[in-house]
Amino acid sequence: QANGFCDIDCMAKHGLVKAREQMERKRKADDLGIKKRNQSFKKKVADSDRSAWAKKAQAAFNSFIRMRDDLLPCISCGRHHSGQYHAGHYRSVGAAKQLRFNEINCHKQCAPCNNHKSGNITEYRINLIKKIGVESVELLENSNDVKRYSIDEYRDIEATYKAKLKGLAGS
User: Fold this and answer.
1) pLDDT digit string (tens) for 41-86?
2) pLDDT value of position 127
3) Which of 15, 27, 53, 167 is in the most buried spot, having the most CB atoms within 10 Å?
4) Model confidence, pTM
């Protein structure tokens, strides 16, 4: 006697077998939904991990650029001043992710030019041509390959630029 019923036929007569089957199908669907949500969560965690490594790699690269160009004036306005300097990209990271860690695409730039004048790009280009030549500037301007960095690549980039920074600091 299961749950107050004589047998399976009696349960079927009262519609319980069908209800049990429906409950089982719903449980399996819920399990599948949980599995899909877990996969989605794992992907988000992996992507946020990639984001964290991108920030670390970018910080190391930017520190290197500022140290490399320490004695130089702002690439855009040509001034030396006591304010804050950035590692200003000629082609922005948003416009050209593939040039994010390209050393000839990034130079010391004062905060007013970078923040308030959107990179002061016209003056940046003029001075960049003087610094690296028109051919190199045109190569930067025509670089349109799409690049997505892996976490391992970000780790390598961070390590490389920390080592380069250490080398500059030691000399």
Assistant:
1) 766 666 668 899 999 999 999 999 999 999 999 999 999 988 899 9
2) 96
3) 53
4) 0.71
Half-sphere exposure of 86 (CA within 13 A, CB side): 17
DSSP one-letter string for 116-166:
ISTT-HHHHHHHHHHHH-HHHHHHHHT--------HHHHHHHHHHHHHHHH
* Burial of 73: CB neighbours in 10 Å, binned 0-12, 13-18, 19+: middle
Instruction: Confirm if 112 and 83 have CB atoms less than 8 A apart.
Output: yes
Any idea which residue has 């520190």 for tokens?
63
Q: 162 and 60 in contact (C-beta within 8 Å)?
A: yes
